[in-house]
Amino acid sequence: MGIRIIDIQRMSSEDGPGLRTTAFLKGCPLSCIWCHNPESISPKPQVEWIKARCIGCHICENACPVGGLHLTAAGMTIDREHCRGCFTCADACPGGAMLAKGQMYTVEMLAKELLKDRAYFGKDGGVTLSGGEAMAQPESIELAKAIRAQGVTVAFDTCGYIAPEVFQQALENADIILYDLKLADSTAHKHFTGVFNDLILENFEAADQWARQGGKLWVRTPVIPGATDSLENIEGIARILQGRNRIERWELCAFNNLCRDKYERLGIQWEFFNAPLMTRAWMEKLCAAAKKICGESVAVSYTGALQPET
């Protein structure tokens, strides 16, 4: 067995403290309707077609062992039902138009690749395991062990919807936990993400206890128009965090639409394609509401692109 990843992002400053190298693992137990990494949801390998790179040579069509690619003037049609995820088309494409998402690595291979950047990490940086949901692949814990054995810190970016025994193993092999709390109301959580939040809140209690014993715990909330951006929701999450003085920070992450092309490449309609960016005024109002409840116990801030001010 190995680890299936969709990408490696180097020199990242947004996935934990310092400069970090982030591995995005494939597969997620949630199906958030706003997901910014739709290619990470399915645990299966997938291919994407990038129109701007295509030279119209039809080599990928001829290479596909199941005849699942059809290039016309209107674009590329991919028969995803019968696609084996073999990436023969991506290997054959001379222009790099067929993009492989879900390549397999052994733990040793991936650890070696991620540790190439250790000269840039400094005293605060390290490796972040993200997704998808990194903990959904059991090998991620072995990967964390291998990286930490080399003196490099590991952060897990998690949605928290993981079996408690697996989550506990991850805590024991992590230096930093980036924990997503999306919606306070469980029914709303089910509507927007596909699951109730009971298990997420249960594991959050474990993460909080771990932080009280010296671990670094950051909380992140995606602020999505019409889904998570209400005062009621932010105040609800604030009440969950209230009094937990071992949480280092709570980031309200403003919605962005940079993933539009990902949905198009996967042939998926995205409900938020035309959704506007958040305004600075509203993000500041949400922050103020959160701070009013949390007080000085939690450092609240907001991040992300906002609507231009006029």
Quick overview of this protein structure:
With 310 residues, this protein is of the alpha/beta class. The protein contains ten helices and 13 strands.
Provide tags for this entry:
310 residues, 23% strand, globular, single chain, two-stranded antiparallel ribbon, 9-stranded mixed sheet, 10 helices
Would you give an account of this structure?
The radius of gyration is 20 Å and the shape is globular. By secondary structure, the chain is of the alpha/beta class. The strands form three sheets. The chain has a nine-stranded mixed sheet. The protein has a two-stranded antiparallel sheet with strand order 3-6. The mean pLDDT is 95. The chain has ten helices and 13 strands.
